[in-house]
Amino acid sequence: MSSIPCSNCSHGNDIGARFCSSCGVELQRSNEDRTEGLDLTDKEIFETDPEMTSGLKNGAALIVAAGHRAGSRFILEQDFVTVGRHPESDVFLDDITVSRKHIELHLSPMGYSITDPGSLNGTYLNGERIGEDSILLTNGDELQIGKFKLLFLVSKSGI
User: Fold this and answer.
1) Which helix (H) or strand (E) holds 46?
2) CA quadruple 79, 159, 46, 134: dihedral positive or negative?
3) How far is CA 132 from the centre of its chain?
């Protein structure tokens, strides 16, 4: 398996990593690794894009609106979803401002709820910091996790 060597400590890092998992230094990347993000000014994008909603188990997604992965779409297909810097997270956000296990999303008959199990930098829902209590998400909610802003969107058919 290929890896990116750190210029500071020579540790081999996974392809696509932005920071060294050993010392935290930003990794040097070639221009081919860099992509332009999509402009996501319309929160209705998920409801009007039939390709996004076809075949979804739960009819919900997280879309990165700001951060180095702007434009990325994460379709929520599980009843329990983890978001964080840990490589095995369901939604992997590779940035030092994101905790390894930053948030958890749980699906109930009411919809997805969010829990922050004690991240270092905290999680913000529509501009307000949330605690460890579970909060139900609604269509168009904005989550801020470190440098990332994510939109929680639900298809018209719901969850």
Assistant:
1) helix 45-48
2) negative
3) 18
Residue pair 4/12 in contact by the 8 Å Cβ criterion: yes
Write phi, then psi, for 31 (nearest 5 degrees).
-65, -25
CB burial class (10 A; 0-12, 13-18, 19+) of residue 121?
A: middle
In the chain, the percentage of residues whose pLDDT exceeds 90 is: 2
Residues 6+ apart with CB under 8 A from 27: 4, 6, 7, 13, 17, 18, 19, 20
Q: Residues 72, 62: contact at Cβ < 8 Å? A: no
Section 139-143 average pLDDT:
88
Q: What is the largest CA-CA distance in the chain?
A: 50
